[in-house]
Structures are given as structure tokens and as C-alpha cells.
Write a structure and sequence with these properties.
This protein is α+β, with helices and mostly antiparallel strands. Strands 1, 2, 3, 4, 5, 6 and 7 form a 7-stranded antiparallel sheet that branches.
């Protein structure tokens, strides 16, 4: 007997391979569920919560946010989206602040460009503002103080 629910769940599992040179020389894999692990979607790409695979094991592995940019979509329109993404990667890679998401790595394959970042389990300031529509003045002071 085949468990149909288990088969359906496995259909949504994606594995992304980072084949770029890294410190250990190994190919690193990140795994996520396209339905369950989607964090956000923007004009340039989608963001998923991913787990790093160690020696083909996923349990207790670190979680990251992986922004996926489709290369075909980047070339559409009259805005040079690739240079905007490159700027985002350059800026994030230079930042080192406890209240700003940390850059981990960036890599690409034939189809996509990837930006790997720290996973913030409590969400982003942007998602808070979108869900609440506005912040109170004392909340703005609090967040400004954290960043400054």
C-alpha cells in the first residue's frame, strides 16, 4: 500500500546544491518544502526557510533563509535587476550588526541565483509593518535605537 499523503509531501521537497568552492571543498546542499517553508515573495524572487544537509542528514541542522532569483525573470523588463541584486549582495556582505540579517553566502546555477542569509525566526521589520500597516512612535524609536 502506498501512502498518498507521504508521496504528495515528497513532491514539494526541493534540494539546492551549492557547488561553488567552500572551505571544506564539499558540495553543500540545502533542503526545503516549497509549500511549507515559503517565507516571502517579492518582485525579484522568493524566500524560503532551508536546512543545510550534513552527510545526507537533515535533523538538527542549521536553518537559513534562501532568496531565489530566477535568471530568466531578471532579464525581463527594462530595469537591470541583476545589478540591483549584486548591490544587495555586496551591501549585505559588508554589514556586521546584531540587529541586521547576516549574509552567509551567494551562489548560482544555470537557472537561478541564490542569496543565503541568517534565518530570523521572529520575522522581519518589513513583515511586521505589512501586517500591522503602521507602527506607534514608541515602537519606531525602539527599532531605530536597535539599528543605530
Amino acid at each position: 500500500m502506498v501512502d498518498n499523503q507521504d508521496t504528495q509531501e515528497k513532491e514539494h521537497i526541493e534540494i539546492i546544491r551549492d557547488t561553488s568552492k567552500n572551505k571544506s571543498g564539499e558540495i553543500i546542499e540545502y533542503q526545503f518544502d516549497k509549500k511549507k517553508d515559503k517565507l516571502s515573495e517579492g518582485g525579484f524572487g522568493e524566500v524560503y526557510k532551508v536546512k543545510k544537509k550534513y552527510l545526507n542528514q537533515i535533523q538538527n541542522s542549521p536553518e537559513y533563509a534562501l532568496k531565489i532569483y530566477n535568471k530568466e525573470d531578471l532579464s525581463k523588463g527594462n530595469i537591470d535587476k541583476s545589478s540591483i541584486i549584486l548591490s544587495e549582495i555586496n551591501i549585505l556582505s559588508l554589514l556586521n550588526h546584531e540587529h541586521i540579517v547576516k549574509y552567509e553566502n551567494s551562489f548560482e546555477d544555470n537557472k537561478n541565483k541564490y542569496l543565503l542569509m541568517e534565518y530570523c525566526n521572529k520575522g522581519s521589520l518589513e513583515s511586521l509593518i505589512k501586517s500591522r500597516k503602521y507602527l506607534e512612535e514608541y515602537e519606531i524609536r525602539y527599532y531605530m535605537f536597535q539599528v543605530l
